[in-house]
Design goal:
The protein has three helices and five strands; from the N terminus they run βαββββαα. By secondary structure, it is of the alpha+beta class. It has a five-stranded mixed β-sheet with strand order 4-3-2-1-5. Helix 1 links the parallel strand 1 and strand 2. The model has no long low-confidence stretch (mean pLDDT about 85).
């Protein structure tokens, strides 16, 4: 298993034809550096496909996932938003399943209204 200590959601959409080298240059140009054991998530403009780039300390791994219907819950980049947002493991797990990861805390509590 590849160790991933931190996960980053890169908010700007990417062309999914991009390979590991091109995505790595996007990380370095927007975040400043690609750290070992960090994962970087990218999506296409329609948010129907995502790529995960992981630097394992020796090289990079690139994995792809797509939804046949619907889209991933993705952050739309607007103005001064950060180029990358850090995700928890639970948020990542929900995101790759196509679930609303931004609402995990709200959905984890059942209350009477």
């Amino acid at each position: 298993m590849i160790r991933i200590d931190a996960l980053w959601l890169c908010t700007q959409s990417q062309d999914m034809r991009a390979g590991a080298d091109r995505l790595l240059s996007v990380v370095v140009n927007t975040v400043g550096k690609a750290q070992a054991h960090h994962g970087y998530l990218f999506a296409n403009a329609r948010a129907s496909r995502i790529k995960l780039l992981v630097h394992d300390g020796f090289g990079v791994w690139c994995a792809t996932r797509r939804l046949h219907t619907g889209q991933f819950a993705w952050v739309q980049r607007q103005g001064a938003l950060a180029p990358a947002l850090q995700l928890s493991r639970q948020q990542f797990d929900a995101l790759v399943l196509g679930l609303p990861w931004q609402r995990l805390e709200e959905l984890s509590v059942i209350s009477r209204t």
